[in-house]
Amino acid sequence: MTPIRILHLTKSIGLYGAEKVILNLYDSINRDKYVMSVGAMVHDRHPHRELLEEVEQRGGESIAIKCSKKIDPRALQKLISIVREKDIHILHCHEMKSRLYGLIAAKCLRIPILTTNHNWIRENLVVGTYEVLDAWYLRFFDHVIAVSDEVKESMLKFRIQSTLISVVANGINLQECNKRRSPDAYLKQALGIRKDARVIGGVGRLSAEKGFRFFLDAAKQVLAEVPETWFLIVGDGPLREQLEEHARLLGIADRVCFAGFHRNILDLYSLMDVYVLSSLREGTPMALLEAMAMGLPAVATGVGGVSKIIRANHNGMLVRSHDAQAVCDAILYLLTHPDEAARLAMNGKQTVKDEYSAQRMARDYETIYNNIRVGPQP
Predict the structure, then answer these.
(1) Do 369 and 351 share a structural domain?
(2) Which of 13, 138, 197, 204 has the fewest CB within 10 Å, making it most exposed?
(3) Are 334 and 243 found together in one domain?
(4) Within this chain, do residues 283 and 368 fall inside the same structural domain, yes or no?
């Protein structure tokens, strides 16, 4: 049987949740039945080649498509040429820009096209307007994957047919997370964190929907009770300068480390004692799954698919979004109740193993690919 050739296409902004989904699919897909290439639409000034570099390190095929304008006919022509030359059977898109270009290319070449909707963030009026347009042309895809029931519900509100949508929760590479890691004193020193400090961490793009402002507000309250604590924020994004300034205004800049983007993110989880997800909107957050798989007790806002992952007081602590006091109280509880923190962490690790592996995610995607390619099987 000829393998099904799939091109994943995205306009990457770094190495965050959607990019990790692509990489985990690449690592876990059945290579006898599927051949997977990864394409990224890159801008001259901000190319963000991190995803492509990761694919190349794995020995895979990565394709950069120069696209420096909102509407770039040459980028579309290049995409069509690539799909034709490589005899791509299925085009799989991952965000708004790639969906627009991919849809046009797929219809011109008459090949199946599907997309994963990782979330609509409604960051501002401009982004919200683009997302309304995105919702309109999603109905012309052959299939749409939502990463959580909540993301599916958001699409149903735009009258996208339910039969067009499948829910496939994200999954992570458990083998990587299970590699034995111990806190690295040298890494702590490089980050300016005291060797014996308790570390509260958060990971994600520094944008409004991730709620890091509330993370910092909670940090100030925690430090009033446990002044020797440190806070570690891993990631980059448009709000970095604002968040650094907010930490200074709160008077806690000397206890907050903005680590920026780190390729070896799992090593940074090993420095943390508690993981906090302070998001205001989410799909199925990869960083939360990674932290839980690494054995960290988690505090998370009950938004999007988070409340399906975290079962309160069983495998983590759920708190309200926009509520710094609730985040603070949960952190303090975990710091002062080590046995309970260990129990929640152990249950959280088991939850990820049982329900959120990359292998499970890959099998779900393979079923969808096969149905799109040859039609549903009896």
Answers:
(1) no
(2) 197
(3) yes
(4) no
Question: The domain spanning residue 202 has which CATH number?
Answer: 3.40.50.2000
DSSP H helices in the chain: 17-28, 50-57, 73-85, 96-109, 125-138, 149-156, 174-178, 185-191, 212-225, 240-250, 265-269, 286-293, 306-309, 324-336, 338-355, 358-374
- For residue 217, give Cα distances in angstroms to 256, 273, 294, 296, 330: 11, 19, 26, 22, 14
Instruction: Report, as ranges of residue numbers, the positions in the chain whose pLDDT lies below 50.
Output: 375-378
Pair 186, 220 in one domain: yes
pTM of the model: 0.90
Residues 321 and 361 in one domain: no
Range of the domain at 99: 4-171+357-374
| 27: Cβ contacts below 8 Å, ≥ 6 apart | 58, 173, 358
What is the overall mean pLDDT for the chain?
Answer: 93
* Residues facing residue 301 across a β-bridge: 319
Contacts 24+ apart (CB under 8 A), 54-61: 54/15, 54/19, 54/23, 55/23, 55/26, 58/23, 58/26, 58/27, 60/26, 60/36, 61/37
Number of structural domains (the chain) is 2
Q: What is the pLDDT of residue 151?
A: 93
Coil vs helix vs strand at 67: coil
* Structure tokens given for 228: 């020797």
Q: Which tokens go with 11?
A: 């306009």
303/361 same-domain check: no
**CA–CA separation, 214 and 217 (whole Å):** 5
